[in-house]
Fold this sequence. Notes:
Blueprint (H helix, E strand, L loop, with lengths): L12 H5 L9 H12 L3 H14 L4 E7 L5 E6 L9 H4 L11 H5 L10 H8 L1 E7 L6 E5 L4 E5 L4 E7 L6 H5 L4 H18 L4 E6 L2 E6 L5 H9 L1 H5 L1 E6 L8 E7 L11 E5 L2 E3 L2 H10 L12 E6 L5 E2 L10 E2 L2 H17 L17 H8 L6 H10 L5 H8 L30 E6 L3 E6 L2 E6 H21 L2 E11 L2 H9 L1 H6 L3 E6 L2 E8 L7 H12 L7 H18 L9 H12 L14 E5 H7 L5
Parallel strand pairs: 1-7, 11-13
Antiparallel strand pairs: 1-2, 2-6, 3-4, 3-6, 4-5, 7-8, 9-10, 10-13, 11-12, 14-15, 16-17, 17-18, 18-22, 19-21, 20-21
The site of adenosine-5'-diphosphate has 22 residues, from α3 and α6.
Amino acid sequence: xxxxxxxxxKPPAAVAAALRPIRPLPDELVSQIAAGExxxxxxxxxxxxxxxxxxxxxxxxxxxxxxxxxxxxxxxxDGGGIAAADLPLALQRHATSKIASLADLENVATMGFxxxxxxxxxxxxxVTVISRTPAASxxxxxxxxxxxxxxxxxxxxxxxxxxxxxxxxxxxxxFLKTDATELAHCVEAVRRHALVRPEVAFAIWHEGKLVEQxxxxxxxxQRVRDVLGAAFIxxxxxxxxxxxxxxxxxxxxxxxxxxxxxxRADQQYVYVNxxxxxxxxxxxxxxxxxxxxxxxxxxxxxVLFVATDPRRVDVNVHPTKIExxxxxxxxxxxxxxxxxxxxxxxxxxxxxSTPAAADAASPLREASAAAPPLVLRSGWxxxxxxxxxxxxxxxxxxxxxxxxxxxxxxxAPLAAQQAPQPVPAWPLGRAIAQLGGVYxxxxxxQGLVIVDMHAAHxxxxxxxxxxxxxxxxxxxxxxxxxxxxxxxALEIATAQAEALTLQELGLDVTPIGPTQLAVRSLPAALADxxxxxxxxxxxxxxxxxxxxxRAVQRAxxxxxxxxxxxxxxxxxxxxxxxxxxxxxxxxxRTERSDQCNHGRPTWRAVTLKELDTLFLRGR
Length: 619
Ligand code: ADP
Ligand code: MG
């Protein structure tokens, strides 16, 4: 593109080589080339060998490593083994027991299917395979380098012993990191398998020391807890979205709450039909589910098991099978987004989500559940219809309509009122004070709850605006004067291809020449938006994976969020105890109320136990 390269003195080596006659490459070299794609580091070997063990039906897999796996990787399993006669074939290129036809490939249910891994590994390391089938009287060992077969001792199953990885390809060896780093990658490779196969026990040893061990678990939740820790489970919500129709996509797993997000995307485990994948579409769908509760660069954490008809996903698109291709990407994107979005919508501040409130028999809890909802809807709808920023007056008139009893002390016998008041089972407890004009302090059965009143109220107002706006948001409102603007060829093509989607969004965007688009209508909720800017951003969204339908909603949400911020109670405003209680009850039933519109937490809890520790009590 820039300056021309200097003229060659001599033709470069590549040009000279092209003049040689064409010859097939020797088998060994073909395998080494394949290994270059599949085996990047010791962890790649671990991944391939565990794939094989799982395909063989293993229930116990042990990985033994030396020097981060560079010196030795031994994977032992108790699977079905390899018959003596087949053993040499296992190491041959393109020899597999897993598929036999193109139809099999389209329906593949095993981890492996190319018959390439063992051959590739044997071309760049010293490999010995020891295996025994249930029918065999003893095990057989095959030394890959020499082809030597010998009787060996082991139970039913297979051990693959890989020594001196990359010994013949020193260039590759130079790319390896420290033993500790390579070990960490190996452990991560096992972890990825372990998460999706709870029924299989895994152990990892390094230099004779046990590094990790996961016993067979009887549930996915248990295995996730074992592998990622109790903290991961406690800071996440279950995702469970069964297939809408037979053969369509289903999702299970755990999505971390916004508070659990990290600065790096290093805890995002996605599986498609049991295979760990990195998929842009799914990652984008998941991130967009967090859009409304997680702002900035924070990365959500999740473990997602996506299941779909194997014929609707191509797993044969990447050498290490870490990428897949979906027949219907849009369906996948939406399914992922919806499943996570609805899992996250339920606030943790809601009844039933804390241990104290889980006591369903509690009359207090029933009383709270039976309390009439605040009648704010009609007021907000008026406000939305007027499309004006909310004033504090609007709020105060709306907020006074709280449940008759701020907490159900009325149901307690009169005598009890002399004694210290019982703490209601409401998750966010009862308000006791306002602090610094900013925080509400409340007492629940666990201890102290601190609420950022502006942040919390902002979310409540925002969610209410969204609910009120939903019904009318997408109706088209014609512009008195169409707005024309200069557009790129891609924008014009997108406007034509997505005309129907645009229409559904209430947007009429049509080409009026080779370089011009005209906007004739806008969604009613955004009637005040700049038509050209909105059309441009919607068209840009439509070019994104799964972008359709997201754009207008996002633009609308932005406007509503701004309105909500104006509408929410300001700092330094004195609230009465019953106003505070009304806000707490509102939080408990508002979706996404654990985060404000900017993704910050709206409340924190300090348990009595933590307070005891703070005061060195009970030591
Ligand atoms: P693929 O897994 O794609 O078939 P591999 O090169 O990984 O290719 O393995 C070749 C064959 O060796 C497999 O198809 C399988 O029959 C056999 N094999 C490899 N590892 C094991 C194992 N641990 N237990 C039983 N059979 C195995
Ligand atoms: Mg394999």
